[in-house]
Design goal:
CBS-domain, three-stranded antiparallel β-sheet, 3 domains, Clc chloride channel, single chain
């Protein structure tokens, strides 16, 4: 009796075939129906809001446990904290983050992609696992008292949920970017109970543009996120301010002056952030020790004033409601900025979203006091200055004038100063972009080597490389070959340019074939005699934008593509072809952003 082995089969099981057909049907539905995309974005907003709720409640519980807070008192609003709690929590929290970073470097894991980078450079592709690691690190940082907010973690997790769903369904690039923005909208809108804030955060900061086709999914995700957090937690955090006086025309120059002050302070803070990181790297401390040192420095500041701890929600309410002296306000503003810079430079995870609101409120209050002292005839309303300071500082550091204006207005419900807040926010944005060019979100990416100023989709530029566009196997001739031999090999019209190489096959320039034929008839010579552009060539890794700039500088309509390692010519590329492909891709990206 012979034993017959079972024949292997690659056929999927009935269950897998059913799941595959369901995914295909769902993908087709999402690609063809805007209502289906709105429904998918709503689901993403719902799950993002659940994650936001869990992170928020966990951070509050850890604050109470670690710092022994009284009931219903925010960490940054307490009179004092125990030195043991501050030094112990921040040093141990820093150590845990340092060991995580050491593990990442040891295993050569890339830096996690944030939502802005994902939508600008990667077509919306993010890692769900890496994003939850970032969310966990943000939660640890905020829970031990580092001067960072949870909002960056909220947006990271929410956006990655949208990206995960879009990648699983293999959606188009534009739809994937839209779901990334919808996840951020649900997270930010839910965290503040502000649907307009969440939606415009997605448009201005995560997506980089407003489009009609994106309005439905993004607003739906933000509204669902707000309703979810309302249902679970009840009333969200609200910024309470005294009633303000009606705005007059004379108030606007003062508000523009405050916008300029916010822009100057914010730009200084962003410059200082890069210098702080370089200064800490110059100490040559091990990677794991830097957050520990940062935690110890943070704890020392917390002993001076607990208002530097955490995002600063309690400190914001405290400073708005209490009549502190000018010196006390200035001291808290400086110490808060120092705490933020130390936290970020040391490696604590998080952002400056809410910290920018606190620093803006402090700056606005200081501005009102100084102007009232120097120009008592004007006497600006402190409440208006606080609101404008919050919005303008948020615009400079976070970005998005409409986002920050709606955040202030939805949280304070003070719509009497809407025009002034919006005008000052736009002024601050213009000043910051014209003098500095970045918000803190994009400045941090710039320090890492990424050349982006917003989340506008430019990833297709890097995909459009010279290696993909070139015509391989160019026509070549040895530099010592005679022009007669060159003309015998290549007849007129067979090519425009011939690549000249040395005896080792290295690139030595280009010879115009028509010019070579003329010289061959008038006395001859060698190929190297007519070679030009010997020091100008393209490489396969260059993108189309860089290639077009090189065509302009060389004033040539055709260039050789050279291997950067061997210097051997491997292809040819014409300016007309690059320009045409670039225009096609740019037009497709614009139509995708507009939903056309």
């Amino acid at each position: 009796m012979s034993l017959r082995a079972a024949a292997p089969t690659d056929q999927p099981s009935p269950k897998n075939r059913l799941a595959g057909r369901f995914m295909l049907s769902l993908r087709a539905l999402l690609r063809s129906s805007e209502l289906a995309l709105v429904a998918a974005a709503s689901v993403v907003g719902l799950v993002a809001a659940l994650c936001v709720t869990a992170m928020t409640q966990c951070a509050i519980a850890l604050h109470v446990l670690i710092f022994n807070l009284p009931f219903d008192v925010r960490l940054s609003a307490v009179d004092r904290v125990s030195p043991w709690a501050a030094f112990g929590a921040l040093s141990l929290g820093g150590l845990s983050l340092g060991l995580m970073e050491l593990w990442r470097l040891k295993h050569k894991i890339p830096v996690p992609v944030d939502p802005i980078e994902a939508n600008a450079l990667r077509g919306g592709r993010m890692s769900l696992r890496d994003s939850f690691v970032v969310g966990t690190q943000t939660l640890i940082s905020n829970s031990v008292g580092a001067s960072v907010g949870l909002e960056a973690g909220y947006a990271q997790v929410g956006s990655s949920l949208g990206s995960f769903l879009g990648q699983k369904l293999r959606l188009r690039r534009s739809d994937l970017r839209l779901l990334v923005a919808a996840g951020a909208a649900g997270a930010i809108g839910g965290s503040f109970g502000a649907p307009l804030t969440g939606a415009f955060y997605a448009f201005e900061i995560i997506l980089g543009a407003y489009s009609i086709v994106g309005a439905g999914p993004i607003f739906a995700a933000s509204i669902v996120g707000v309703l979810t957090t309302h249902f679970i937690l009840g009333a969200p955090y609200q910024i309470s301010t005294p009633l303000s006086q009606p705005l007059t025309l004379a108030d606007y120059p003062l508000l523009f002056g405050l916008a300029a002050c916010s822009a100057a302070f914010g730009i200084f803070a962003m410059r200082a952030a890069g210098l702080s990181e370089k200064a800490l790297q110059a100490t040559h401390l091990p990677v794991w020790a830097r957050p520990v040192l940062g935690g110890l420095l943070m704890a020392a500041l917390a002993i001076v004033t607990p208002q530097v701890l955490g995002a600063g929600r309690g400190a914001l309410a405290l400073n708005i409601a209490t009549a502190f002296s000018l010196s006390a306000l200035a001291a808290v503003l400086v110490l808060k900025m120092m705490a933020c810079l130390i936290s970020l430079a040391a490696g604590f995870r998080g952002g400056l979203f809410f910290a920018s609101l606190l620093m803006g409120a402090l700056l606005g209050k200081i501005y009102a006091v100084i102007v009232a002292a120097l120009l008592p005839v004007l006497v600006p309303d402190p409440t208006i200055c606080i609101l404008v300071g919050m919005a303008t500082m948020g615009v400079v550091i976070v970005g998005g004038p409409l986002t920050m204006s709606f955040l202030v207005l939805e949280n304070t419900a003070d719509f009497s100063v809407t025009a002034g807040v919006l005008a000052a926010s736009i002024a601050a944005s213009l000043i910051a972009r014209s003098t500095f060019g970045y918000s803190f979100s994009t400045w941090r990416l710039h320090l890492r080597g990424e050349n982006i100023r917003s989340a506008n989709d430019i990833g297709w530029i890097d995909d459009l490389t010279v290696g993909r566009l070139m015509q391989p196997d160019p026509r070549k001739i040895d530099a010592e070959a005679s022009l007669a031999n060159l003309c015998a090999l290549y007849s007129l019209g067979s090519a425009r340019e011939i690549v000249v190489t040395d005896s080792d096959g290295r690139y030595k320039g280009l010879v115009n074939l028509a010019e070579a034929h003329v010289h061959a008839q008038n006395g001859g010579g060698k190929a190297q005699d007519l070679a030009r552009l010997a020091d100008v060539s393209l490489t396969p890794g260059m993108n189309a934008k860089t290639a077009m700039a090189l065509f302009d500088r060389s004033q040539s309509d055709q260039l050789a593509v050279v291997d950067p390692l061997t210097a051997a010519p491997i292809g040819m590329l014409t300016e007309a072809y690059v320009a045409r492909r670039y225009a096609e891709k740019a037009d497709a990206a614009a139509r995708g952003a507009l939903g056309m």
